[in-house]
Amino acid sequence: MHIRLINPNTSAAMTASIGAAAQRIAAPTTRLTAVNPADGPESIESHFDDAIAAVGVCEEILRGERDGVDAYIIACFGDPGLNAARELTRAPVIGIAQAAFHMASLVSTRFSVVTTLRRTVILAEHLLSQYGCATLCASVRATDIPVLELEHNPSACAAQLIDQAQHARDHDGAGAIVLGCGGMASFAADMQAALGIPVIDGVSAAVKLAEAAVGLGLHTSKHGDLATPLPKSFTGRFAHFSRSA
What does the record give under GO molecular function (predicted)? Predict the structure, then answer.
């Protein structure tokens, strides 16, 4: 099977890092390609970043359809453009936040999220509510690490992530930790060893869920709101999204 991992920001270095983490967990028979849009934010840390990045995600889905991709992963914890992407394909589309929350719920009764900037705590809380996981989450803790700092200073970032995760384990009652950024994928194994509890990286969780969905012969439902968008014309910079009947 062919899984396409879409990093919605424009950092090629982060795409390579996320892709490597995904490849390590993928089955030997899985072909995994990691891409990022040419246009958009270099990191996604706000509602505005999320909205702009969603356009790039949709463009990458359409490219993947031409390449015969079997499943897609949106490798940003905000899951930007997730349902829009699902409208554009019958292939399964997995967001790493949704994947991580559900995977954590299978191995613990309460989990905590350790994320980047303080403002993204609210974004994570919105997603927890949207996905029906709010009652399972003990806390959402911020490190105030900018996303791109995960690439530039990984040792210092790892120490901050472990510190917040320890607080979640010891004071919030978390039985597992969800990493709240795709750029944290490479930290999961060392953190799990240090903490002694499950640490869920959404990228790895999404890879295994995508493989499972394809293996089960499942596809994105085209009944209801995830049906293919109605044919219509788009203008200006979005003309390439135009569809004829």
Answer: amino-acid racemase activity; hydantoin racemase activity
Q: Does the predicted model carry a pTM greater than 0.85?
A: yes
Domains and CATH numbers, the chain: 2-95+205-241 (3.40.50.12500), 97-201 (3.40.50.12500)
pLDDT tens string 14-65 = 999 999 999 999 999 999 999 999 999 999 999 999 999 999 999 999 999 9
Q: What is the pLDDT of residues 168-217, one digit of tens each?
A: 999 999 999 999 999 999 999 999 999 999 999 999 999 999 999 999 99
Tokens representing 153 are 């200073």
Q: Indicate the helix (H) or strand (E) that contains 165.
A: helix 154-171
Q: Which residues of 37-61 are buried (b: 16+ CB within 10 A; e: fewer)?
A: beebbebbbeeebbebbbbbbbbbb
Contacts of residue 190, defined as CB under 8 A and 6 or more positions apart, other chains included, come to 158
Query: Which residue matches tokens 């003990």?
Result: 138
